[in-house]
Amino acid sequence: MSEHDEAEMPEPEDRSVEIEHKLVELLARREHSRLELRRKLEQRGYGFDEIEPVLADLAARGLQSEARFAEHYARGREQRGYGPVRIRQELRERGIDDGLIATALEALEVDWFAAARAARHKRFGAAAPADFREQARQLRFLNNRGFDAEQCRVALENDPADR
Known about the structure:
Layout: H1 3-8, H2 12-29, H3 34-43, H4 48-60, H5 66-79, H6 84-93, H7 98-108, H8 112-124, H9 132-145, H10 149-156
């Protein structure tokens, strides 16, 4: 190896400072799960063994928190009209464990039946579906939004206020 090659290879300590800088930069924009951060850095050519100690340090210092990410993510998705099934699935895909997911969903304190009805009303109006085909269409919409079968059934009924 020539002197020139050695000069281009950053020292391991320099790499960890560089990784920390990139992680803090990402976290300054929005909350991220540990898995999201790891994937983003791996796409930039950093190795798992380089990333993990820095991620652990950031978590220990409270700069990255799986619980905080789960709460922010769940709140944002709920506000966009998504149901608990979809939110749970998306959080799992982002590496959040089931205990933190349950805590984040409970912290929302949402009436999921009312949320399903509000999502249906926003998309289709307050009137109940006129026929089976329209009911199936609205049911597919609510299922895709992440509401369970019971929440969908209630959302498809006439509003008690409309009777």
